[in-house]
Amino acid sequence: MNLNSDIKITRDSQVVQHTSPLGRPGGARKKIAIVGVGLIGGSMALQLHEKKLSSKLIGVEESRKHAEQALEYELVDEILPLDEAVQEADVIIMSVPVNVQVYLLPQVLDKITDQVVIDLGSTKSDVITAVKNHPNRGRYVATHPMWGTEYSGPAAAVRGAFEGKVVIFCNREDSDADAVAWAEKMYNKIGMRIVDMDANAHDLHVAYVSHISHITSFALANTVLEKEKVESAIFQIASAGFESTVRLAKSNPAMWVPIFLQNRDNILDVLTEHIDQLTRFKDYIANSDQENLQALITDANKINRIIK
Predict the structure, then answer these.
(1) By residue range, what is the domain housing residue 100?
(2) Quick one: 100 and 178 in the same domain?
(3) Which residue, 140, 170, 197, sits at the end of a domain?
(4) 192 vs 209 pLDDT, higher one
(5) Which residues pair with 79 in a beta bridge?
(6) pTM
(7) Inter-axis angle of helices 253-262 and 264-286, nearest 10
């Protein structure tokens, strides 16, 4: 991934260079660079603008198509190569696949002085380890906004996406107080609730509440497509339950394969338990064991305590 390519585009020749008198890194509005203007980065850009957190939004994109879309949908004011964007920005928001994050974040920290760098990735242990001893480690705030859809790219950006959702801050004690304070301000302004976690605990918990859901959806979609060769029949009889269960199977593999591999140990743990649960269902159905089958479903109903 070459995010320091020569792609440099403005929405039109009249783009104003919004110079903030507040400077960096204090003050209200900031020049903000978003590295990766896809679903998450693009949705973040919309709220940064609407909540008046940004004086200027700069996109960084390796894809010319995505760069042009980010400008077309007015997600950013201009697209710059990574080096230029970092130099101009007060805040750099990293919204790239987690395998790219591991090697790109240290490069970004190499280029900054007092800017704030915030990443939005779904796994945290590997990327935090990658910058553990970096001299600019304090300028980096590790976060994970818990929101997403099955779609990708700038065209998938959603207004108000993060309102009422949770964002996880990981290992905040390793970040400078002013960097954390600005990140908190940003997330509070866009309507998110902040939860603190150790990076290892974060990766374990998201394996259970997010990553396994995607694996299950991918597997179910493959199962149905393998067994039901007449795709028109699926379309005609698909219920709301089926659609909601396999919705995540439309998610971008470029995003999810790196997540699965980075969080491999935790995912294997939860996947083993999930397979065991499926095996129980299989065995009880095969043996017409009504009592134990009912017990499994009754136990599953206890999820009502967590999800209303």
Answers:
(1) 9-197
(2) yes
(3) 197
(4) 192
(5) 9, 59
(6) 0.84
(7) 100
